Amino acid sequence: MKVLGIESSSPVASVALVSEEKLWGEMTLNIGLTHSEQLLPLIDELLHQVKVDISEIEGIAISGGPGSFTGLRIGMATAKGLAQGLNKPLVSIPTLLALAYQQVGCSGLVAPVLNARRNEVYTALFRFSGVEYQQVEDDQAINPQLWAEKLADYGEPILFTGDGATIYADVWQESLGEKAVIIPGIFQLARGASVAELGLRKLLKGEEDEVFTLKPLYIRSSEAERKLKTSVKS
Fold first, then answer.
1. Could you count the other beta carbons within 10 Å of the beta carbon of residue 140?
2. Residues near 198 by beta carbon (within 8 Å), at least 6 away in sequence
3. Does 80 share its domain with 124?
4. Which of 11, 16, 59, 150 has an alpha carbon within 20 to 30 A of 22's alpha carbon?
5. What CATH number is associated with residue 71?
6. Is 70 found in the same domain as 110?
7. Is the domain of 8 the same as that of 36?
């Protein structure tokens, strides 16, 4: 089963094609262009390079949030358009799970952290044991210092990944000391391959999302929504 994975929840745009047998290919850009400029050309080039016709795609997986509001909307619209046009199943994969899943095979706690701005991060906590994992803290938007204090209570080494791992490195290290493990920046990027692999697992189980009702997971309201609420109250 060939599954196309799309990641657009952060400034990184990444697409990948996987099957049960292998990763066919992956293309990732972190150059600051809007996802509306990147995603479809990336998908087209990926399929061209791996010599797979778009009609051969059997499922689509999209990073469903939390993350950049604009990036999530563009990615979701792209995935829905492809799913409808190709008449193929679509699955949404939680962004933080996909980010943490890139550390599959390790043993212990993994905290994916995305910069949510406004002195908050989008984060969660997972415990990995080989290829198995358990989510032990729900997806949330939280102040970095409060999150660090909560993680310190576990008393265990915690691997941080995502762009927030480096941005708030001092916060993690101040609260956790040597138990804060921050991986190099090049390994912190969100990847389409992780989204595609998790999507493949869901689709093989017969799971899929409803194309017309599926929405991104934002967790908190957008800046525009907050301004609208403020103006209504005033």
1. 18
2. 61, 93, 97, 98, 101
3. no
4. 11
5. 3.30.420.40
6. no
7. yes
CA–chain centroid gap for 66, Å, is 8
Peptide bond into 184 cis (omega under 30): no
Q: How many CB atoms lie within 10 A of CB 230?
A: 9
Residue pair 8/16 in contact (Cβ under 8 Å)? The answer is no
| Total number of domains in the chain | 2
Q: What is the pTM of this model?
A: 0.92
Give the range among 7-11, 34-38, 220-224 with minimum mean pLDDT: 220-224
How far, in Å, CA of 139 to CA of 94, rounded? 9
Whether 183 and 197 share a structural domain: no
Distance, in Å, from the CA atom of 119 to the CA atom of 116, rounded to the nearest integer, reads 7
End-to-end CA distance of the chain: 54
Q: Taking a C-beta distance cutoff of 8 angstroms, is the pair 57, 24 a contact? A: no
Phi, psi (degrees; rounded to nearest 5) at 76? -65, -40
Give the three-state DSSP class for 68.
coil
- Do 10 and 77 touch, CB atoms closer than 8 A? no
pLDDT at 200 over 60: yes
Query: Binning pLDDT at 50, 70 and 90, where does residue 229 land?
Result: very low
Q: Which two tokens stand for residue 183?
A: 């991986």
The pLDDT tens digits of the residues spanning 108-164 come to: 999 999 999 999 999 999 999 988 999 999 999 999 999 999 999 999 999 999 999
Q: Which domain holds residue 207?
A: 3-95+191-233
On whether the CB atoms of residues 9 and 93 are closer than 8 A, the answer is: no
